[in-house]
């Protein structure tokens, strides 16, 4: 999709809930224009913050269990998980600077 690591219903528990770092999950879809706009921003953040933050994406159409479990109703939804719990949820694309500001207290 966008070059970000992709998680699924099957490995969400291992890759996100069981991760040692905070995890930023982009709930996305192939047909979602704003999701595609956000992908390069997330790739940059993933590279810059690799030691403090894991960034992954989950396709809502192919992974309905996780999407429903976390109440995701629109894409892109960004959700930050820390110690297995969702600690922040943001809906919609945003510029890199704003996203980093919103994540600052979690890193």
From TrEMBL:
Protein name: Thioredoxin
Keywords tagged on the record: Disulfide bond, Electron transport, Redox-active center, Transport
Organism: Streptomyces collinus (strain DSM 40733 / Tue 365)
Disulfide bonds, paired cysteine numbers: 32-35
Pfam families in UniProt: Thioredoxin
Any single GO BP term: cell redox homeostasis
Family: Belongs to the thioredoxin family.
Domain Thioredoxin: 1-107
């Amino acid at each position: 999709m966008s070059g970000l690591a992709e998680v699924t219903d099957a490995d969400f528990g291992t890759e996100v809930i069981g991760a040692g770092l905070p995890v930023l999950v982009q709930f996305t879809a192939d047909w979602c224009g704003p999701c595609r706009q956000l992908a390069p921003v997330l790739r940059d953040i993933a590279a810059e913050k690799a030691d403090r933050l894991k960034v992954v994406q989950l396709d809502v159409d192919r992974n309905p269990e996780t999407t429903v479990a976390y109440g995701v109703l629109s894409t892109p939804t960004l959700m930050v998980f820390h110690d297995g719990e969702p600690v922040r949820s943001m809906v919609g694309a945003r510029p890199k600077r704003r996203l980093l500001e919103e994540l600052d207290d979690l890193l």
